[in-house]
Hints:
Rieske Iron-sulfur Protein; 4-stranded antiparallel beta sheet; about 5% helix; metal-binding; Rieske_2Fe-2S_sf; NirD
Amino acid sequence: MSQPDTQRTLATWKGVCSEADLVSNSGVVVWLDGAQVALFYLPGAQDQTLYAIDNHDPQSGANVIGRGLVGSIKGDLVVAAPIYKQHYRLHDGQCLEAPEQRLRVWPVRLNAGVVEVSVG
Length: 120
């Protein structure tokens, strides 16, 4: 019987900024292994308060998602892209107006005052 591959089951967490760098109910952008990642900190949210989503807007081609407005549509937390205003769900990156589009999302957590994103 083979042993489970622990390298695949264990996430690798990488610190990207401090908790003090976050802005409540807004986005900040960090660099993560060649990608711009928009972090959204929503301290009043019921379930999850921190989200990491791709900063690249596929509609405009610009890296602007971190500047988008955060809101709620039919119970889903979303960010509105600043240029063409399409809405992306924060938990899975799905575009509400164009379901075939999805932004990449990363697991993210706060660990002793450091924001960490899973890279594995």
